[in-house]
Amino acid sequence: MVMNVAPPLLFLGMRVERFADDWTSAEVSLKVRRWNSNHNGAAPGWSLFAMTDPFFGMMAYGQLGSGYRVWNTTAEIEFLAPGRDTVRSTMVMPRELVDEIRRATADGAKSVTNHEA
Questions:
Q1: Of 19, 72, 84, 89, which residue is 20 to 30 A from 26 by alpha carbon distance?
Q2: How many domains does the chain have?
């Protein structure tokens, strides 16, 4: 997959395992190594954000098309356990949600949605 050679993903040790042809889901992994871990040997927050940040926007834009502007504005992580081996994230952007975004923006209004990975 061509995304796997993008410098931000490649140098962080991330890999796009699967990206749905219809832009509805993506699976990404991060293999934690000495050079991409924090002082505790775990995946640092910035690499976890990098695993998800571009993908929700890509999935929304891929389904909405070029007539829309898609932005990520905020993000948060609740750390449940340190990621010390391989961290995986599955992100989903259902067509029903994209249809809701289209309806909400039909008159030019802004739409804000929240997503969980």
A1: 84
A2: 1
Task: Report the distance separating Cα 24 and Cα 34, nearest Å.
Answer: 33
Question: Which segments of the chain have a pLDDT < 70?
Answer: none
Using alpha carbons, list the distances in angstroms from residue 87 to 28, 37, 55, 81.
Answer: 8, 12, 16, 11
Where in the sequence is the domain holding 31, given as residue range(s)? Answer: 2-74+83-105
The tens digit of pLDDT for each residue in 58-80 reads 999 999 999 999 988 888 888 89
The backbone region for 13, taken as left when phi is positive above 0, alpha when psi lies in -120 to 50, beta otherwise, is left
Tokens 């030019």 locate to: 108
pLDDT tens per residue, range 31-41? 999 999 999 99
Q: Would you say residue 117 lies in a domain?
A: no
Rounded to an integer, what distance in angstroms lies between the CA atom of residue 50 and that of residue 63? 21
CATH code at position 41: 3.10.129.10
